[in-house]
Design brief:
Layout: H1 2-11, H2 13-23, H3 31-34, E1 42-46, E2 49-52, E3 57-60, H4 63-66, H5 75-85, H6 99-111, E4 116-122, H7 125-142, E5 150-154, H8 163-168, H9 172-175, E6 185-188, E7 192-196, E8 199-204, H10 206-219, E9 223-228, E10 232-233, E11 239-240, H11 245-255, E12 259-263, E13 287-290, E14 302-307, H12 308-313, H13 334-352, H14 355-371, E15 377-383, E16 386-391, H15 406-415, E17 419-420, E18 422-424, E19 427-430, H16 438-459
Parallel strand pairs: 3-17, 5-6, 5-9, 9-12, 12-13
Antiparallel strand pairs: 1-2, 2-3, 4-14, 7-8, 10-11, 13-14, 15-16, 16-19, 18-19
Length: 461
Amino acid sequence: MAILQRQNTLTNPTHIDEWDRDHSWHPFTQMEEYCSVPQLHVERGQGCWLWDTEGNRYLDGNASIWTNAHGHNEPDINAALVEQIGKIAHSTYLGLSHPVGAKLGKRLVDLAPESLNRVVFSDNGSNAIEIALKLSFQYWQLVGKPEKRLIVGMENGYHGDTFGTMAAGNSDAFHGRFQPWLFESLKFAAPECSELDGKVKSADMGKSLCQLEEVLEANAPQIAAVVLEPSIQGPAGMRLQPAGFLKEVETLCKRNEVHLILDEVFVGCGRTGSVFACQQEGVDPDFLCLAKGLTAGYLPLAATLTTEKIYEAFLGAFDTGRAFYHGHTFTGNPLAASVALKSLEKLERLISSGRLEKTIYYFGRKLAESFEGQRNVGDIRQRGLAAAIDLQPRQGCVPWPPNDRVGLKVCLEARKHGLLLRPLLDSILIVPPLVINQEEIDFLFDNLRTALEAVMKNIGN
């Protein structure tokens, strides 16, 4: 009886609320605000849907923070995980290997741009970028150019929250207070592009490319690498880059003997319609960084791909000190690697069958039909299965104060209609699983529109 009472206590929603409020510290969350609104504890998932501890069902409109590709509780991926856990859950990759790690490295190289032939595993996107930065820094030392140590990033760039990635990025809202601890870096303007339903509404990359060219030509002897998120700057609010921009950046980097680091943590693994976003413009970077969708939202795993030329610079006798001394306890974890292998297999079928392309087309068309011309909607941007809706007061009204939290109010209202989303200030970011179907897309946008209309009615805008 005592055991049953204890089990009931552990599953009691009231106690879960209390423990969460009393002991949790959630990321990117103002906890005073969090504790003032109803808590939601996700207990299980199936396909594109999530259920909370009270049995309420929600469409996962942000793919569990942009990671989920093939749906929750996916049978094939579950089976791959079970098969691997019956063998071994973890074995170090420091000086040892295992079959699934070797297979995953080979698979990523087969899928990647031609010159990328080496893979360094880690366990999250920040680490994948941090590794690329450190490899570039050390490489230039090893080839006799230690003065090449500057990093060039793009305005509004976000590459993670470790100190190297904060320095390479340009996200003052998240990282501004840490500036005194960050290493020196240079920045260039982001290009402008607005696109919806496969149609470009406006685009301008001239200023951006001119600034980058000026920065590189003036400082190339001191610059190690340029780092950017190709195609879409996700955490900046789904800011898009025009077609052809990335290819021009590659040309400038090659001309000035500067490494190109592509942060495909968000856009890679099918999010823009191809396995890697850089493939759409035939770009072959020096470093390609992956995470998030790599394991389809199952387990932490990241990868930094690089070239044989860079790898060979690190070779030598032990006493030369040329080795790359960087690693993580769970580097190349076998469970995560097995999941990634199965996810990539399913992703290739999703793309080759044409299903992903059709889903992206319907997603863009339904988004445009649902929100273009809406009174409180400004710009709408969409590429692949990623979109942003910028909210604004109606014309002539005073801008909303930040503490009005209109974007959050819309997302909280959306929960009442079976939809989970996360705002970025007063922009609603929409990133569903890649396998979302047309009926679910209809549900997503119909209920988001209902939630938006309800909030705007209540605030008189």
